[in-house]
Structures are given as C-alpha cells and as structure tokens.
Protein: CASP-like protein 2A1
Organism: Zea mays
Amino acid sequence: MSKMAEEKAAAVGGLGGAGAADAAQQQQLAAGEAAAARVRPVETLLRAAPLGLCVAAMTVMLRNQQSNEYGAVAYSDLGGFKYLVYANGLCAAYSLVSAFYTAVPRPATVSRSWLVFLLDQVFTYLILAAGAAAAELLYLAYNGDKEVTWSEACGVFGSFCRQARTSVAITFGTVLCFILLSLISSYRLFSAYEAPPSSALGSKGVEIAAYPR
C-alpha cells in the first residue's frame, strides 16, 4: 500500500509541476507580447525607412547617364550598377511587405520569428553585396588599375561618377537599416530559447572528456 501511495503522490506532484511550468510559460509569452506591442511602432518605422532609401538610390542610378565628345555611358553598361538597381528594387518591396507585417498585431510564434529572421538575413546580405560591388566599380572608375592598364574614367565622365557615388552612399544607408533589423529579429528569435537548467549538467558540473594518448 505504501508503494502505491508513493506512486500516486509522485504522479500528483508531477502534474502540479507541469501545471506550474505551463503557467510560467504563459506568463512569459504574455510578457513577450506586451514588450512586442511597445516596440512595434518603432520597428514598423524602422522597416519602412529602407523603402524610401531604396527608391531614392534606385531612382538616382536609373537616371544616371552622360554623353560628351568622348562618348556616352549609362548605368546599364555596367553589371555592378544594374545589380544595385535590382537589389534596391527587391529590398524596397520587402521593406514594404515587412512593415505591413510588423504593423499588424499577431501572436508571436517561433516559426514566425524564424521566418522574419531568415528573410532579414537574406536581404541584408543582398543589399550589402550590391553596395560592395558598386563601390568597387566606383573605385576603379576613379583610380583605374595599372596592373591591367585600366585608366580612370571619372575625369571624363564626372557627372556620371558623382551620381553613382550618391546612389552607392544611399545604398549603404539602407545596409545600416537592414543590419539593425537583423539584430532586432535575431534578438527576438533567440530570446525565445531558454538556457538549459544547471541541474541538466549533473551534480558534478561539466565533465571534460579525456582522450587516450
């Protein structure tokens, strides 16, 4: 009889512990949703900011062309500048969609946090790569490359280079915005995971494996 009583008491204790854990988890979710509601307006504005920057950078580059007695040049003649235009267009669309997505209150879930985190990472690296490629083209246009006998071109097409430089500078402003968004989404995602309790390490603490020599 005593053994059965002990088993019943253990079962009741286990149910009580599970109920307490569920209650604690619900409180944690409620606190997280309250914090998200306070941060939502700021994050929405931050997600909308790259939209204007991307459109500005794209517009400046699309209008970038120059012709004189030495010839004519346009952004479409250079693959790096075309990539910059495409990347800014994609990032502008993502900025608009993500701003609307963030502005609408919805329950926070781990799957949604993972989705936003991954998309933020993809578009951050996309716009960073576009800015870096365009910046390298600008460097060659201003300085040339003696090793491959490329002469600088900005002395002849100064207006073209200035407009390209403006577009690249705006693009790197977009990069900074996306880096901040990536930090926010990564914090939101990984703060949902708790560190393992110290009891999981065992009474002896962390054991270091010894390999035979």
In short: The mean pLDDT is 79. The two ends are 55 Å apart (CA to CA). Residues 2-62 form the longest helix (61 residues). The chain has four helices and two strands.
